[in-house]
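Notes continue from the previous slide.

Worked example: a multi-chain complex. Inputs as given:
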Amino acid sequence: MTQRPTTEAALDALVARLRGLPLTSPVTARITDVLDDPTASTEDVARTAALDPALAMRLIRSANSAYFSLPEPVTQVGRAIQFMGFEATREIAASPSPLPLFTLRFADQARLNERIAGLWQHAIAAGAAARILAQRQGLADDLMPQAAALLHDIGKVAMLIALPEAYERAIRMAAAEHISLVAAERRLLPFDHAQVGRHLCAAWGQPESVSAAVGRHHSVRSGTADEAYSELAAIVHVADILARALGAGWWGDGIMPRLDSSARHALRLGPDDARLLLGQLDAAYPQAAATFMGVFVPRMVTVAHAEVATVTLS
Amino acid sequence: MAEEPNAWLSTAALHPDMILAEAVISTGGMLLAQAGTPLTRRHLRQMRHWGIAGAQIATQTAEDTRPLPPSVVSQWLAIDERDPFMHALADVARDRYARHQREAATREGSRT
């Protein structure tokens, strides 16, 4: 008899499975090129790093780690690079990153590839929506809301790749019973995509606030009462809703989540804002999609899908 | 599990004779077409009438699946409109969807 693994152990197993995949950011090579240029400034490196907001977050988290013992935490990627120096930046930029998960395509897995591509479009839309919401909150220079929104459904990608049969069952159940995909996941699986996303983000070097916002995008109120965390979680929650209303891509169900009232309060959303925000997103999305799809070019994975998709849950 | 590759296509991108990979169900729960059915012009008219955003199509019949136009609203079927913001958002999304359908119809009209 095998013992039923705990949720935590199952999450670890899932993340471990994905480690065999090529997850170096395409932005890493660009950063290396800039770092190799003797005339490059910190500003140049920061601008390049910002092309992968999750990678930028990783640099920020590393700069804020105990190793560098900064007098106060940095929130700007340029400051992070300045404090760590170019050599540490080069090293950290080479570590695996979550966004490349969206670029993976598998041989003979047309439906899986379609779904991942659709989730990437939805992620880009949510990222663009988070930027718009962050600007309203006076956080125009902060990459964190965009990074967290880009990553909000990364757990769906991870589960599609590592648990294909169980996850297709959840997708079918959501459609057949007119429930949300997250509700179907909770019925069929030991964890939902928000938990998987949170675990993945933590394992791949995202700051705690990003992992927490990813983990809470369907339940903003749970967890810490810290105000900055709540604002970030609220932005990601509403960005998901706006991205669904925009309609670009695919996200696995036909249910619009209920707007969390604490998120509505945190972002001071009134009825007039709906048209305004969706109009802004409509205008911003094509540029965001062109930029991200230009940087994160899909790549065929050489490892057979069956080798990754063998996580067992029982 | 039978692996039948399929793709989600917006209603505007659907053509007669594409094979449905999943059943098409209206917001009210009415079955419009079974999985495995080849689409007809009548199905497409019904889908537009019921405001259905798209369908899962078996990919051997779906040639152009990427990228979905960003203006395509919306896969959502159920929305809780008691919240004033969400109510307004649903209105806006419906307007956009209707506009998209009109544009698609105009394009179709100009082709024939």
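Summary box: The first strand of chain B starts at residue 6 and ends at 10. Residues 40 and 110 of chain B are 20 Å apart (CA to CA).
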